Structure formats: structure tokens, C-alpha cells
Amino acid sequence: MKIQVRLNNYRRSARKVREAIPVIKGLKVERALNQLEVMQKGSAYDLKKLLASAIATAKNDFNLEEKNLIVGEVMVQEGKTLKRWRARAYGRANQILKRTCHVLLTVEEVKIATEDKKKNVDKNKKTVIKKSVKKSVKKSVKKKIEKKNVAKKDFKDKNRQDVKKKVKKSKHNKVVKTQKVNK
Fold first, then answer.
1. Which of 46, 82, 145, 158 is close enough to 98 for a disulfide, judged by CB 3.0 to 4.6 Å?
2. pLDDT digit string (tens) for 123-133?
3. For the whole prediction, is pTM greater than 0.85?
4. Is 181 among the domain residues?
């Protein structure tokens, strides 16, 4: 189940808030809260409050356990920009843009399988998948090694061809002239 919480018209630029997002995305909720606690970004405190709100919503409204929750999708969109001005020298004015953003945070429930369910899973399917993955990895590694070897041979051949003799032959297959060719 997905629980979404929004923070609208947050008075920071979307660019600054987006810097804090990759640190918490995909983590368990407890760990994400710890990361935000330690983070030095200005938006970390408000993101922490938003995440705590999402956890409270999941607990109270949907009866979910905190240990089963992870941070899912986090989107930061630009909001309205407040335009102000500041007086400058010689009667001029400079524009000041006070940016806002909207943060959408999704908390998802992860279903933790019990040991009974884990035993019922077909082990043969897992091994077949693992073997096919291993085979494809081995094939790709072999192809890369072959490409490297071919590249080395081509490089050596080019170096050998730099100093070769070019022979011109006449109509009667007699050697007329020999020249050294340097590329």
C-alpha cells in the first residue's frame, strides 16, 4: 500500500530540496529519519517532519507497522515564484525571486515473507534464474576480452605496417623501384 503526503508552497527552491532526496530514497523509514537528522541541508529538518507525518498517517489511518515501511517516490516540483525588488544605486531596482516548491513523498509497505512462505517457494526456479544470469554474464565477459585482444592485434599490426617497403612492378613482373613508406 502506498501513502502519499504533500508539502505545498514550501519556501525553498526546488533545486535545493532535490539535493537531499537521493540520500533517503528507497531506505527503510527509520534509517531515512536518521539520515535526515544528520544531514546539513536546510531542507532536511522539514523533510524529516514530512516523513514523520507520513509514518503517523500510515500507523493511524491504515494500521501499518513502521518496520515494514520504506520511502518510495519523492517528487519536488517548482511552485509559485514571488517577485520582489530591492533598491540599488542611482535610483535603480534589482529583481529578487523568492522561489517555492511542492514536495510529494510516498511511503510504501514492504511485505516481509515469513519463513513458512519462503520454504514453499520453488527452489528450482531460483537456481535456473541464477544459472542463466551467470551464463549471460560469462558470455558478455568473454566478448569483452575478445574485443580487447582484437584491438591489441590491430594496434600491433598498424605499428608494423608503418615501416614497410612498397614495391612497384612493371608489366613483365620485374621489380622496378623500391620505396620506404612511413605513415
1. 82
2. 555 555 555 55
3. no
4. no
Instruction: Tell which residue, 54, 154, 68, 80, has the closest CA to residue 114.
Output: 68
Within a domain: residue 63? yes
Provide the domain count of the chain.
Answer: 1
Contacts of 17-22 spanning 24+ positions with Cβ under 8 A: 17/43, 17/47, 17/76, 17/101, 17/103, 18/76, 19/43, 20/44, 20/47, 21/74, 21/76
pLDDT band of 138, cuts 50, 70, 90:
low
Q: Classify residue 164: in a domain, yes or no.
A: no
**Could you tell me the residue range of the domain that residue 28 belongs to?**
2-86+96-110
For residue 122, being part of any structural domain is answered with: no
For position 52, which CATH number holds?
3.90.470.10
CA 183 – CA 13 distance, rounded (Å) = 58
Q: Exposure pattern of 91-102 as b/e (b: 16+ CB <10 Å)?
A: eeeeeeeebbbb
